[in-house]
Amino acid sequence: MSRFMLSLGSSLLIAAILCCLTTAAQDILQFRGTAGQGHFAAKGVPITWSDSENIAWKAELPGLGWSSPTCVENEIWLTTALDGGRSLRAMCLDKKTGKTIHDVEVLHLDDPGPIHRKNSHASPTPIIDGRLVLVHFGGHGLGCVSRDGKVLWTSRELKYHHQHGPGGSPVLFEDLLIVNCDGTDVQYVAALEKTTGKIVWKTPRKHISEARLAGEKNAPMGFSTPLVIEVEGKPQLISTGADHVAAYDPRTGEEIWWSEYDGYSLVPRPVFGHGMVYICSGYESPVVYAIRVGGRGNVTKTHVAWTRERGAPLNPSPLLVGEEFYLVDDGGVATCLDAKTGREHWQRRLGGNFSASPILAGGRIYFLNETGVTTVIKPGKTFQRLAVNRVTGRTLASLVASDGAIFLRTDEALYRLEERR
Q: DSSP of 270-314, one letter per residue?
C-alpha cells in the first residue's frame, strides 16, 4: 500500500470495513474501489499505453454500458444493455484472457424509455459480495446473480422516473443493498435484503426546496452513489440529493443530519477524510462543500468548513489523497486543494471533456477524459504530468486497477493495460 493511502489514516479503513466485503487486496468489489473512494492497492500498474502498446488483451463488449468493472479472483463483472436497452445483462470475463465466462439477462423491458446522450441503460456499477453479484439498473430494477451465472432474484418495486436513464451505483452495508432513488416524480433512499431483494426500509427525501417541487426549478432528480462512513463509532450513510446532502442510519434509514444547497441531478460520489465529507452540489452551478461530520439536524450554518465553486465538477467524483483534494471539472480543468482548508495548490487544463472519476493507483493519479485520453500525474502540491495516453473509443466509465493492470472500458471494448516486458 502506498504512503499516500496510509496518510489517509483510519477513516478509509473504517469505510472499507463497513462495506462488509471480504476481499483480497486486488479485488475491486464496488464503484471506485472496495472502499468506494477511488483508491486501488494494485502495484506496478502501467504509466504509458496506446492502441498498440502495453495491451494484454482487448475484449469486444456487446451492447452499451458505462458501469465500471468489478473484480474478484479471476473474474471481471460488468453490465451492459442490448436491443436498445430492452435486455439488461450481467457479464463476467476471465481476468487473465478477457474471454466471456457468463453473459446473463437479468431483466427484460418492453420499453426502456430514453436516455441522455452521455448515459446508457446499464451505467451503475455492480457490487460483488462473496458468491453474489448485485446489479442495479435504476428505475428499471435490480437483481442478484450468482458467480456461476444464475439469476437468484430480481425486483422492480423501487419505482421512479430517472428521465435520463440510470446513474448512481448501489452500496452494500452488512446484509443491505442501499440505493438512491431520485426521480423527477419521487425521491427516496431504500435498502433491500441482499439475498432476497425484499425492501427493508424506504426513506423519502425531506429537504427539497418548495420551488423545485412546484416546478419553478429543474426537476429534483439525482444520479449519485452513497457512501458509508463511521462517526463516533457508529455508521452513517452519506447520500446526496436535490438541494441537500443527508446522513442516514444505514440499518434503519433514519435521518441523522442534513445540509442544504441549491442543486439537482447530482452525479459525483462523496468522499470522506479529516473528519469531513466532501460533496458536490450538482447542476447548474456546482459547488464543492466540505462538511464536518458529527452534527444533528440542519448543520448548514454550523458544520460547513469550506466551499469551492471554481473548478467544481458536475460528473466526475473528487479524489482525496492525504491532505490533498483533487478535482477535475467536466471541461477538463484539474485542481488540487488543501483538503482541510480548501486553499488552492494548483490548477491546470488537461484537455477534453470529462465524465469518469479520477483514481489513485500505484502512487499516481489517473484522469480519463471522454475520448480515450488518460493523463497521469504525480500526487503533490505542485503539478507534475507523467504521461498522456490514448486509446480509440468513447470513454465515460471510470478506470479500475488490479493485479498490476489498469482496466479501461470504452463504448465497444474492455482493455487490460499492463507493462509488457
A: PEEETTEEEEE--BSS--EEEEESS--EE-TTTSEEEEE-TT--S
Structural domain harbouring 367: 3-417
Closest CA to 239 of 201, 275, 213, 277: 277
CATH code, domain with 8: 2.130.10.10
Domains: count for the chain:
1
- Cβ pair 408, 57 in contact under 8 A: no
pLDDT tens digits, one per residue of 29-54: 999 998 999 999 999 999 999 999 99
Summarised one tens digit per residue, pLDDT across range 310-369 is: 999 999 999 999 999 999 999 999 999 999 999 999 999 999 999 999 999 999 999 999
Q: In degrees to the nearest 10, what's the CA dihedral of 64, 179, 144, 318?
A: 50
Residue reference for cell 498498440: 52
The residue assigned the cell 476471465 is 94
Give the Å distances, CA to CA, from 237 to 2, 19, 290, 321. 27, 11, 16, 21
Helix, strand, coil distribution of the chain in percent, nearest 5: 5, 45, 50
Beta-carbon count within 10 A of 379 CB:
18
Q: Give the pLDDT band of residue 24 (cuts 50, 70, 90).
A: low
Residues 6+ away with beta carbon under 8 Å from 234:
249
Asked whether 407 and 416 are in contact (CB, 8 A), the reply is: yes
**CA atoms of 378 and 387, how far apart (whole Å):** 10
| pLDDT for residue 190 | 98
